[in-house]
């Protein structure tokens, strides 16, 4: 799949994988982050992604993880975060009337299509194939760029303990705490 010539929407689950890291998707995660950092493709997500992704860090009072999400969604030229507008909400309501999907999913789809995305990258099989955008399941990708190091990222530790790699304040090339 050629993402380099397309505008890619990142569903919340993809952002969570990018920040927290899940072993099954590490090569894809590393390719995504590398591509964003190098400007090889453009991505978009919704402000809704921030609200959805921050629930767990807030519930666990994990400030390191919350900060990682906020940094990721505000610190890249090649990743835009679209506001939730009245037009997007009206389109989302229309999608919900047509298909049985959750409001959050409808808002994500409406944002992606309204903003002209070519691909909707997700791990949610319930979305089907809406008109106007290609839904790509992360599980259908074997890799995205060069395979990455297969170690647990420090943010994985932060998710469990509220810290990232102890007192060390090193940063990886992707702007996240280095892997242990």
Can you tell me about this structure?
- This protein has a five-stranded parallel sheet with strand order 3-2-1-4-5.
- The relative contact order is 0.21.
- The chain is built from eight helices and five strands.
- It has helices at 12-20, 26-38, 47-53, 55-59, 63-72, 86-98, 103-114, 154-161, and strands spanning 7-10, 42-46, 79-82, 119-122, 134-137.
- The protein starts with 6 loop residues before the first strand and ends in a 19-residue tail after the last helix.
- Helix 1 crosses helix 3, helix 1 crosses helix 5 (63-72) and helix 6 crosses helix 7.
- It has a domain at 7-49 and 77-151: 5'-nuclease (Rossmann fold, 3-Layer(aba) Sandwich), CATH 3.40.50.1010.
- Helix content is 43%, strand content 12%.
- With 180 residues, it is of the alpha/beta class.
- The model is unreliable at 144-180 (pLDDT under 50).
Strand content: 5-15%
Largest sheet features: 5 strands, parallel
Helix amount: 40-55%
Q: Uncertain regions: pLDDT < 50 for 5+ in a row?
A: 144-180
CATH architecture of the domain at 7-49 and 77-151: 3-Layer(aba) Sandwich
Q: What is the CATH T-level topology of the domain at 7-49 and 77-151?
A: Rossmann fold
Q: Calculate the mean pLDDT score and round it.
A: 77
Q: State the CATH class of the domain at 7-49 and 77-151.
A: Alpha Beta
Total helical elements? 8
Radius of gyration: 16 Å
Number of E-state strands: 5
* Overall geometric form: globular
CATH level 4 superfamily of the domain at 7-49 and 77-151: 5'-nuclease
Class per helix and strand makeup: alpha/beta
